[in-house]
Every structure is written in C-alpha cells, then in structure tokens.
Sequence to fold (221 residues):
Amino acid sequence: MLATGLAVTTLGGCDHALARKLKQYCFRLKMGLIIDGEARTIESVRRSESWSHYSWVPAANRSFSRLIGSATPVDIGARTLFLTMAGYQQYNGSRMSHYGDGPRAPTGTWTPYSVYGDRGVEDAPDWSGGDKSFVLEVEPHELPVLATFTDASDPRSIVLVRPEALATFFPGVRFGRSTVEWTRSAVTRTDIRRRLPWAYDNKGKPEIYPYVEAGRYFFGG
Fold:
C-alpha cells in the first residue's frame, strides 16, 4: 500500500471527462554538494499539477495533485545517491501534518510548498502565477528524500539517507547551497528506469516506512 501523499490518481472514462486541471507550474531544484572539496550542483526540473474532479453527486467531488519528473541519480564513487520525488511530512498522532511534532516520515511528494510547510508558512505565494522572482534557499533538512542502495539490483537494500548522516554513507561529501526556483524549462527525465527497473514492474516493493513503498511514485520516471 502506498501513502496517499505519494499516489498519482489515474482517471478514466466519464471520470476523466469530469476532471479539470486547476493549476500547474514547473520548478527547478538545485541541490548543492561539496565532494572532496569541489562544489557540484545537481539540478532537476519537475512539474506540479492540481486537478479537481466533479461528480453529479456533490459529496463525491474531490481534488488531487500529481508531481511529474524523475528521481535524479548522483554517482559518487562506488555508490549512487538518489534525489527522489518524495518529501518528508511531520507525523502527528493519527494524521500527517506539516505542523505536527512527531517523527518526519517520507510520505508526501516534494514541491516548494514542502519548504513553506516545514517553516510553518500558512500564506505561501501561488507559484502557478508565473512569477520568475520565486526563489527559495533550501536547507539540507528541507530537501526531498535522499536514498541509496548497497546493491541497486536488490530493492531490499534501499536505505534512506538523512541529511545529518550524508557523510556516513558518502565520506568526504557535505551539502553546499541548495535552492528551488520557478521555471519554464522542460521537465528533467533521467535514466532512473534503466537503473532501477524493479521499481516499475508489478511485483511487491520494499517498504521504506510503514505503508510507504519504494516504487514508481517514489522515483518518478
């Protein structure tokens, strides 16, 4: 089972005819790394879309969103660091909330609003308005979920890389300056499907957190 925040809703038939796209925008994430003293910037452009579905029965009306793009692999020595599509949310009791005080769980898609949520900003600006001035500096703990494998062909060997433990998995590596900015650029497509083909088949996926699977929604594609 996949947590709701990571699911991509597929509509068909009459449902699709009644769905309407509300907003969309693209953003460019730039993750800064210092590798053996040399600065490196990892860039990934992703698109966020918001939709509404209207039914003849008002109680069945609903809205949903999806994130389009690909996880970005970063080869560092003999291992690879994956900048995934997922974001952390704060767990509070029986519900997920950016404003909770429980453990941070990798259960939602990552967008600029994830950063606002981490900072407790409730009146965040509308990125779908096409404002080129939108740029946020992103702290390491505000980045999307990072992951690595001891063996990329073995799904069970996936490990989440918490920002504070980056050097444990990648000695000599630390974070540099990271930002996210509004852009008109095309979505970045990587070779993630070739690297992790098991994430896109119909077999069971490893859980990285209760009810959160490391599959196509986690890695995009």
